[in-house]
Amino acid sequence: MAAKKKPTVQAQDLQGFKYFKLLNPLLERLHDLGTERDKAGNRQLCFDHYAALVLLYFFNPILTSLRGIQQASTLDKVGQQLGVPRTALGSLSEAARVFDAAALQDLIAELAGRIPHGTTPKEQQALRDLTAVDGSLLPALPKMAWALWRDETHRAAKMHLAFEVLRGIPVGVTVTAGNASENDQLRALLQAGRLYVIDRGYAEYQLFQDILDAHSSFIGRLRDNAVWQVIEERPLSTAARAAGGVSDRGVWLGGDQSGAVFKQPLRVLEVRTGKADAHGRPEVLLLATDRLDLEAELVALGYKFRWSVELFFRWFKCILGCRHLLSTCANGVEIQVYLALIASLLISLWTGKKPTKRTFEMLCFYFTGWASEAELLAHIAKLHDQGA
Question: Both 270 and 383 in a single domain?
C-alpha cells in the first residue's frame, strides 16, 4: 500500500516570524561560509538560509520532513520574512554536505553566553558551574556506513553533550559515530572554570587529571573495584549523613601504576542512594572529586544533579523531534543536532526559563496560528510568576 500523501504546507499554517527576525543578525555571519547551487546554476542556497529553514522546521509541527521544508521555502511569506529564496529539494539535500557544521559551534557558545544565571539557592552557590556530561545515541539507517555502532544492521550516531545544570542549557556538543570514545569527546569539550559531573563510564584516571589540567574540577563516580591509599579521614556532618554519606576520605587514588597519573591527592566519598544493588544490598556509590572545599552533602547533590542531562536528552529526542534525521551524512547530522541545540537555547532566551514541553507546545501553537502573541506572552509571564 502506498504511503498516504502528506498535506501541502500553506502560508496560513506558518506564523511567528517576528521571533525568527531576531535571528537574522546572528545567522548573517554564516552567509559567506558556503553556497549550494542547483545543477542548472539558476538558484543558490546560502548557509544562513538553510539554517533558518531548519530552525523553522523545529518550531512548526506541520513540517515533518525535508520535503516539507522545501514546500515552506516556496511560500512568499517565508521568503519575505526569512529572506530565503525558493529552494529545490536537491539543494536542501546537498546542503547537508556542502556547509561546514563546525561553524555553528560558535553560535551555540554565543547564545549560551547570553543566558543569565538565575537565582541559585545560597546553599547551592558552590555548584554554580556544575556541568553534566554524557552521550546519547541517535538511531541511524543501515546505509549510513559512517555511523558505526554494533554491526551492519545497527547503526547510530552519538551526541556528546556538556550541559550546564543550574541554567539548564547545553554549553558544548560533538557528534560522532555510535561507537566513538566518550572520554575522548569529553576531552574535546573541556573548558576552564567548570565543575564536571560524570558517571562511572568516564572513570579513567588520566581523564580526571586532564580535567584538572584544563583548570576545571570534577565529581566522578568510581568503579566498585577502585583502590586508594588513605591520607586522612574527614568528619561527616549531620547534613552529610542525612544525604547518605558513609565516609569522606582524602586519598591518593589508584595503585602503583594507575595512580601515577595524578599530580595531587583527591577525595573519595561513599554515599548511600537508598536503593538496593543487584545483590539486594544497600547501594553505595564511590564519588571522587578534587574539590576539598565542598561540603560532602553538596558533592552528593552535585552527582544527583547529573540526571538533568538525561532529562535533556529526552526533551531533545522526544519533544524537540530529533529522532528523525534530515540527512544521512555525518556533516548533515551534525548540522541538525547543532541547530536543534540552538532552537533550545532560543526558547531559553525568549522565555527566560528552561525549556519545557508545555512551553514548546505553546510556541508551536503560536507558530502555527492557533495561539495569539498575547496568549504566548501571557504563558511566559505565568512562568515567571510561578518561578518555573
Answer: no
